[in-house]
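Lesson 9: reading folded outputs for more than one chain in a single document. The general rule is that every protein is listed as its sequence immediately followed by its C-alpha cells, and records are never interleaved. Here is the first one.
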Amino acid sequence: MKQIMDVKPYFLVLLLFACNASAQELCEGNLGDNIFTEGNFGSGQPNILLPNPNIAPGYTYTVNVPPNDGFYTVTNSTMNWQDLWPSWLRIQDNSNDPFGYMMIVNASFSPGIFFEQTIDNLCGDTDYEFSADIINLIRSNMNGHIRPNVSFLLNGDLQFSTGDIPQTDDWITYGFTFRTEPGQTELTLTLRNNAPGGIGNDLGLDNISFRACGPSAFIDTDRTIFLCESDNEPASITADINVESFSIQWQISLDGINWTSIPGQTDNVFFHDNFDPGSYFYRYLSATSVVNLDNFKCRIISDVIKIEVLPLEYSLKDTICEATPYRFGEDILTSPGTYVGDFVSQRGCDSIVTLDLAIIGNDLSFDLLETDPACVGDETGSIEVVDLSGDRPPLTYLLEGEEVSGPPFNGLGEGTYLVEILDRYQCSAVATATLNVPNAFFINVGNDITLEFGEVSRNIRVNGSEAPFAVSWSPADFLECSDCLLNRATGATNISYVVTAENAGGCIATDTLNVFVNANEVNIFIPNVFSPNGDGINDYFQLFSYAQAVSEIESMAIYDRWGGLMYEGKNFQPNIEQLGWDGRNQDEFVLTGVYLYVFNVRLIDGRLIQKTGSITVVY
C-alpha cells in the first residue's frame, strides 16, 4: 500500500486551487503525467496519518479529530470520527481505494495571502492544467456557515477567484489551464484566502493534479483491432496530431500498465507487423519539441489502442452430462473423446480447435416442500427445494421454464408449478409442486337497518367463517367503538359502514352495513307545567329527547311576561331533571304564573335548532 513519505511542501499549492465552477477552464485535450505524483496523499490502513506530513505551512497538523480552526489532518475517512462537528459531512477520500487518504482542513483565517510557492523545471510555450477535487465539508442543509473563497495568482497576477465554494455534499473538480511564456521554466503560485474567519470555511482536498495539457490526442482508428495469426499484412495506426507542430514518440505495452518507447518510431503512422498471438497496447507521447518530449512535465499522453492477435490453434476442454447433446461446429457429439475441427471465428480468422470432451453421469435429484397461499387470490405461497443431492454447483433454477433466483421461490399463488434444476455440466432434474386454494375467509354483519333519529340500534355482531383476529369499522361516526366485534350505532344520518376483518393468517375480508335514519323527525318533549315545591315530583323544568337525539343543550333562558330574564343555563345534557330550572330567580322561588322559555339545542348530527314556548309554574 502507498505511504506518504517526504511529501513536498508544495502540496498546498492546490489547497482550494479552484475557480468558480461556472467559469473554470479545464483542459479539453489530453493530459500528461501528474507532476504532483503524491497528490492523492497516499494510502494506509490507519484512519489518521500518524507522522506529520508537513504539507501546510501556516497550519498546524493534528491527530486529534476533528481539527479546530487553523488545524488540518490527513485521513482516509471521517465516517467513524466520534466527535465530528455536527455541521460536517461524513465522507471518504475521493477514490476507489478504501484506504486512500485525503486532506481535511478547518481553514478559518483572516483574509490575505496564505501560500506562495515557486515551481521550476517547466517548459516554455506549453499549456498546463492545475486541478484538484474539493468538497465543502458543511452539509447542504446547514445555514449560516462561511464558504471557502480563494483567489489564485500566477507571478503576482490575479488569474481567477473561486467565489463561494458551494455546499453540495459532494466532491467537485476545480481547475484551470494557462500557457507558459517562451523560455519560461518556473513560476510562482500564490493563494489568497478571501473568506473571513468564523463559523465554516472548512473543506476536504484530494487528487491534486498538475499536468501538461495538449490537443486531443486520439488514434484515428477503432480502440481495439483484431488480427489473425495467419495474416501477413501489417496493421497501421495513425496519430491524428500535426507532427509539424508536435514531436511524438510511440510506446508499446504488453499489459496496458508498463510502457516502453519504441526506438525510431516518431512518425504519425505506426505499423504493427508482429503476428504472434497476444495483446499489444500502443500509445504515443507528444510535446511541442523533441527537448520537451524528454521532460515528463512537458508532454501529453494519447489515448490507448489495443491490437489483439487471435491464434490459429485452440485447445478446449469441456464436460457435459450424459444424454446431453454437445454441438461442435456442424457435429452433435454424444460420446467422450478428442475431436478436431476447422472453424472461422466471428472476427473472420481461421482456427483449428481441439476439443477434449468428457461425459459424466446424472445423479442430480431433489424434492419440493410446498406452502399454500394463506388467502384466496393472494400470492403468499412458496416452494422450497429439499433433499438436494448429486449436484455440482453453480446451479441454475428454472420455474415454469423461466430462470429465477432461489430457492425458496416466494410470491406464488395457487396452481401447479414445474421446477427444474441444472448444474454446471447441464445435468438436470425436474419436479412438480401444487399449491392449493385455501379456505375462503369471509364476514357478515347482517342486514341493513333503519333507525329513528337518535335511536340506538340493537347489537350488531360481526360473524365470520372463522374468528377474526382484528376488526375495524369505517367511518367510526355514531358508533360505540371502531374495533369491536359487537357494536351499536346511533341514528343520526344515513351512513354506510365498511367493516374490515383480518384472520390469524393475515387474510382480509370486508362487509358493508347501511344505516338509514329518519332525520326529519326529531322527537323532543318539553313540559308545559311544573311545580318546584320540593315534594320530589315534577320539581324541575327540563327538555327531554328521544334516545340520543340531542348532543347538548347549549343554552336555556327563562323570561317573565315582560321579557325580564329569570334564569339562564348553558351547556348541559337533556333528560336529567336536576340539570334543568328549579323555579328560582336569584335564590328566590318565582311566583305562580306563566313564563316564556327559549332552548338552543345541538343535535347529534351537528344541527342547531331552537325551541320556544311557555311554562306554567304552580305550587
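And here is the second record, again sequence then C-alpha cells.
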Amino acid sequence: MTTLPARPFSTLLVANRGEIAVRVIRAARERGLRTVAVFSDADADALHVEQADEAVRIGPTPAAQSYLSVEALLRAAAQTGAEAVHPGYGFLSERADFARAVTEAGLVWVGPPADVIEQMGRKDRARTVAVAAGLPVVPSHPLPKLSPPQCVRTQPGGDNFAGGELAGGGKLTYPVLVKAAAGGGGKGMRVVREPAELDAAIDAAGREARHAFGDDTLLLERFVEAGRHVEVQVMADTHGRVLHLYERDCSVQRRHQKVLEEAPAPTISPDLRERLCASATALTREVGYVGAGTVEFLVAGEEFFFLEMNTRLQVEHPVTEAVTGLDLVRLQLQVAAGEPLPLSQADVRARGHAIEARIYAEDPYAGFLPQAGRVGRVEWPVEHARVDAALRAGEEVSTAYDPMLGKVIVHAPTRPETLTALTAALDRTVVTGVATNVGFVRALVAGPEYAEARIHTAWLDTDPSARAYLQRPELPAAAWSHAAQHLLAERPAAETSHPFGAADGWRGAGDPAPPRVLLRAGGRTRFVAGAADDDQALTVHVSAGAVEVVHEGYVHLLERPDALGAAGQHPTASDRDVTAPMPGTVLAVHVSEGDRVEPGAALGVLEAMKMELTLTAPSAGEVAWVGAVAGDRVPIGQ
C-alpha cells in the first residue's frame, strides 16, 4: 500500500449528537484539538453543545433537516473553520456520499475512504469482497427492488418464494432471513419461518429499509438458528498496518438490536478466536480499509459465517477499550491525521472481562416499544462503572432520534466478577419519567441464562424461558411505605406552619396516630403510614400526582389520588379499544367505521424511531370509530 501524506488538523467538527458526540469531544480535547458541535432545535441545550468549544445550529428537530443534511454540516464546518469531520455512529456515519462530500470540500474524513464505505456498506457487495478474502458466507439470494411497495412476484399467478421456488432456480428452505442490503442496526430485517409469511415480510422489510436508508434492496438468506453474534474490532492506518483488537460477543439482542455486549466472547475456543481474528484482518486488507471498523460473524459451534462490516466506530467500542486499554477514538484521530498506528499486533493484549449494557427509552414489557417524554430524575453509577451518556434530569426524550439514552460499562478480572459489578451498577441507575429497559437488563444480567452464556441472537424473541424476563416486576411491599415517607417529608412548609396543618397525628384522647397518605397502584387504593423500617434499597422520586419508586432498575408508579383531583381522572381505554402503544406517526389506516374484523386483523401501521408497528384487532367485532388518518402524529395512549 502506498503511504499517504500526513493531514494534520487542529479543529474537529463532530457530526452527531448525544453520548457519542460527548465521547468524541472528550477524546479530541485530550489530543489538544478544538471541537465544534452541531445541534438541531431539539438539542439546543444538550450536553454535547455545552462541552464543545463552539456549537452551530444546523436545522429544526427532524433529522432529515439537521443531522442528515450534508449541506448543513458542510456549512457548519466552513463557518467554524473546522478542518476535519468525525461522524460518530448512526446518521451519516456509513454514507459514502457524505464521506465523499467532506473530502471534496478539502476536509479530513475521520473514517475509511468513501469507496470502501460504498463497497462494504452494502451487504450484497460486502459478501463478494468477503468471498475474495476467503471468508465463509451464509448462503444468500438477491431480491428485486420493491419500489413502489409491493410483494415480490414474477408472473401472473406465480409466487416466486412462498411456493418455495427461487427466481434463479433452486428450493428455499425455512427459516429464512429477509434483510436490507444497505444499512444495519436491525432495520429492514425479518425472520420468516413459514412460506405464507414471506410476502408480508418482504413488503415490510423493504418499506422499512427504504425509510431508514433510502434503499429497499433486500437479500434473502439462510437463518442460522441459535447462532451467536461475534464481531472483531479492526484498526488500519494509511501506512499498511492492519490490527485486530480481539472480539466481542453481542448475542443478546431483541429484534436484531443489541442489548448487552461483552469482551472477550465467553463461548469460543482459542482456535476459533484465532480464525475469526485472522479472517477479519484478511477482509480489512482485501478492501483497503483505513480507520476503525468491525467485522461481524455468525458463530454456530466451531463454524462461522461472515455477516457484514461496519465501516465506523461501534456503539459497543467501550468494552474493547476496557480489555485492551486502548482509546479507539484517539486512534481514529491519529490515523485520520496520517500518523502510523503507534503499536503492533504483538502489543495488543486483552486483560480481564468487560460488559456493556445499553440503556434505552423503551418498554420491554410491551414489545420493547420506544418511549418518549420528559425525564424526571437521572442518576448514573459513575463511581462504580464507566458511563457513556448525555441524558440529564428534565430533558425531553424525543421520537425524532434513536431511543438509546446511554451505556453502562464495567470491567473486572473475571466474567463472574464483571456480572456482579454490572448488576450493582444497574441497581444504582435511575431514570424516571420515561419507561426504560434498566430493570429488564438488570434482571437479565443477574439471571442464570446470561451467567451461563446460553443466550443466542434469537433467544429473547423466541425462547419460552425468556418470557419470565418479559413480565413486569411486581411492586415491592416496601414501596408503599417508602413512597408515603417521602411524601410526608416533602410536604410544603405551609402545611406545617400552624397546628392544624402539622399532620403529626396529634389527638387529645390518645397516643398520636401515624400520619398517612392516600396512594394507588396495581388497582389498589390505600392509606399508608410513612414508616419504612426495612432495609430494602429503594430510590423514590416524587412528582406531581405520583410517586416513582425504583427497585432493581425498574420504576414502579404509585398514583396520588388526592393530588390528582377531578382534573387528573382520565378515562381508561377498554380492552376493545386500540390505542397507540408508543408516540409516533400513523403510516396507514386499513379499516373504516362499520368494517367487520377478525382477531389479529391489521388495523393500521404506526412508525416511531424508524421502527414500524402493525396495530391489530384485539377481538372479532365491528369498527365503531377511527381516530386517526395516515400522516397523523399521535401521543402514546391515543
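What the second record shows: The longest strand covers residues 242-254.
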